[in-house]
Amino acid sequence: MEKVGIITDEGADLTQEIIEKNQIAVVPVKLIWPEMDSVSGDNIFQKMRELERKGVKSFGKTSQPSFKDFLDRYNLQLAKFEKVVCVTLTSKLSGTYNSAVQAKNFLKPEDRERILVVDSLSASAGEALPVLKALDLIKEGKKAEEIKEELESLVPKVSLFLIIKDPKWMETSGRISHTVANLIRRLIKSGIRPLLAFKNGKLVPAGFKADAGDIPTALFKQFESKAGKSKGKSNIRIVITHGDDLKGAQRLKEMIESKFDNTEVVFMNIINDIVGAISGPDTLVLSWCENNQ
């Protein structure tokens, strides 16, 4: 039996290669959107574009994983590992963390102590970074309790910024008001890119980038302003996720790597359905943290 295993949810947007290579158990996130069954597309963003093209006015409803979803993964990992570290979506926007904690109560008392749950206080690329750090610590031979402690120390240091192309989806899902959505539209039309960021587990406005041109350039400028002072001093680990805009994600990656030689873009991946249903197509997410070992 191996020492420490990992559980996370689909909100982390890990690649299948990382999941399989490291025997990570993944709890599915849930999206209820019946109209999606009536349109074609390889992912949620292509289907959202198709719904929009057809003039179908609807939006998806999210649902947290049940405690049973976690319980099943707990039992799966406990059969293979001595202890398990579970990293979840932010508790400030989802009940996923609560479901993970509740599921422990359905285990035998001796097994409950083998599960350690960490709130990422983030999502998508920002949730992936603590998982990647946990994998590093496992390779170093750290104990599960030490890993949990280090992850909780890392979580506040993870930066995540995202830019949406159209506020429509946040508006229809009730995340922002019609007034705020119209303000964002006017700013975008004027060449100003509003930034959103995770702060203390919540998604909040994080300023603007004027005359940035496109979304990749705006996010690069934000990274440059925030992480530039550590250029050449600290290794920076980066994850980029996108709303079916691989070309934009690749451009952002290239801009960062061409100017910063102390960065590592670990992976790029498409945004999960839960975040994607709210943020919409062509959203770009950039998350990073210092990776000093």
- Helix count, DSSP H or I runs of 4 or more residues: 12
CATH architecture of the largest domain: 2-Layer Sandwich
Strand content: 25-35%
Strands of the largest sheet, in order across it?
Answer: 9-8-7-12-10-11
The count of strands amounts to 12
Q: What do we call the CATH topology of the largest domain? A: Hypothetical Protein Tm841, Chain: A,domain 3
Mean pLDDT: 92
Rg over CA atoms, rounded to whole Å, is 19 Å
* Low-pLDDT runs: none
Largest sheet composition: 6 strands, mixed
Inertia-based shape: globular
Helix fraction?
40-55%
Return the CATH class of the largest domain: Alpha Beta
> What is the terminal separation in angstroms?
26 Å
Structural class: alpha/beta
Number of domains: 2
Write down the secondary-structure element order: EHEEHEHEHHEHHEHHEEHEHEHE
Give the arrangement of secondary structure elements.
Layout: E1 2-9, H1 16-21, E2 25-27, E3 30-32, H2 44-53, E4 61-63, H3 67-78, E5 81-88, H4 96-104, H5 109-112, E6 115-119, H6 125-139, H7 144-154, E7 159-163, H8 168-172, H9 178-189, E8 192-199, E9 202-210, H10 215-227, E10 236-242, H11 246-259, E11 263-270, H12 273-279, E12 284-290
Parallel strand pairs: 1-2, 1-5, 5-6, 10-11
Antiparallel strand pairs: 3-4, 7-8, 7-12, 8-9, 10-12
Helix pairs in contact: 3-4, 6-7, 10-11
